[in-house]
Amino acid sequence: MSASTKTSISLIGAPTDIGAGARGASMGPEALRVANIVEMLERQGLEVLDCGNLTGPPNPWQPPVNGYRHLAEVTTWNHGVHDAIYCELTASRLPILLGGDHCLGIGSISAVARYCREQSKQLRIIWLDAHADFNTNTLTPSGNVHGMPVACLCGFGPTELIGLSG
């Protein structure tokens, strides 16, 4: 397969567990790299650019405020994810986010929605998960935003997150 016909993908690491209530998700990007994700994707005929890891605030491990745990930090991480995903889409590369917890779906899907809107393309999402992630701050006692991305993407959540893609 010639280089000009290869599908170009970009790996973007987001090592955070900011929206979760337990540690571990932040190790996902590095675990995938240790497991040779780049080499495996290249063996499939893909052109892979590893963009490295995004950075953001650490997890302060504080209790929820107004039903949201770490809202400012979650918002910061999702803005970074949104910008990185959108940048790769506009460069005609397929971004693959190596997360992190579920809350990052807010930033990544918002970026794809923005790009589709600008390109007059229809957005389609398949969400595979053990639960719907449609919690709101009034439905969940934990306040963990990792259980809220679908609700936020549908307009049920804090302004900081539902207005992410403009």
Question: What can you tell me about this protein's structure?
Answer:
Helices cover 34% and strands 12% of the residues. Helix 3 packs parallel to helix 4. The longest helix has 20 residues.
Summarize the structure.
With 166 residues, the chain is α/β, with parallel strands linked by helices.
Strand content: 5-15%
Look at the structure and name the CATH superfamily. Ureohydrolase domain
Main beta sheet, described? Answer: 3 strands, parallel
CATH topology: Arginase, Chain A
Q: What would you call the shape?
A: globular
**What integer value in Å does the Rg equal?**
16 Å
| CATH C-level name | Alpha Beta
Question: Count of DSSP E strands?
Answer: 3
Number of helices: 6
The assigned CATH architecture is 3-Layer(aba) Sandwich
- Average per-residue pLDDT, rounded, comes to 94
Number of domains in the coordinates? 1
Q: What is the helix content?
A: 25-40%
The parts where pLDDT drops under 50 for at least 5 residues are none
Widest sheet, order of strands: 2-1-3
Comma- or semicolon-separated keywords:
globular; Arginase, Chain A; 166 residues; alpha/beta; 3-stranded parallel β-sheet
